[in-house]
Model the fold of this input.
Amino acid sequence: MSNEEKQPQENSLVKKATLPTSPEERDEALAKIWNDANTIRQYFADGLSRKDFAIFVGKGRLLGANPFTEEIYPAKFGGKMQIIVSRDFYRRKAQEQEDYDGHRAMAIYSNDEFSMVNGEPKHEVTSFADRGKLAGAYAMGWRKGIENHFFVSVKFSEYNQGNYMWKQKPETMIKKVAEAHLLRQMYEGILGNTYTPGELGNDNLTQEEKDEAIPAEAVIFDEDE
Done:
């Protein structure tokens, strides 16, 4: 195929990937993306069975996720097709809600002073030079009109996958897990029925599968749901 023949198609893909800023126009543009089944299959779902492809398109359309920015994509995990939704998509959906009032995530180390007092986390980093062993992370979030904040905590030992990213950036990864848990809790009606890769039972995977496992900032749908 000549460069002249490729150019219109490439320009069309760039246009699809660039969404309007207003929610209404963005939803309309995303609907058009998911209605173009040929493009979705060619660029994001080549090799999926008809059943898996239908599930992928249905989930993507329902969530309003953009496959061009990797907010959603299918992958094999433990020999099974999974639909991956990124942590950044969680953030976007939360920030689009009128009552969203912010959230934050923090890592906890063994030398930190951490306690819960009347449901409130009390956390003090006594020394950045020597915080000790990474113990876990917590996340807090707020919604307008709701007096109490949302809170979740996760243990590093329960979610550490032992692959490259968890070895290189353990604090970043466990904070992403806590953040995903929090945002799902805050907006269960929008983000419910998803869970993080660490909840899939990675202890049963081979080391090769662990090294290729999907990232902690992603959340996934089980194809059997």
In short: The chain has a mean pLDDT of 80. The chain is about 40% helix and 25% strand.
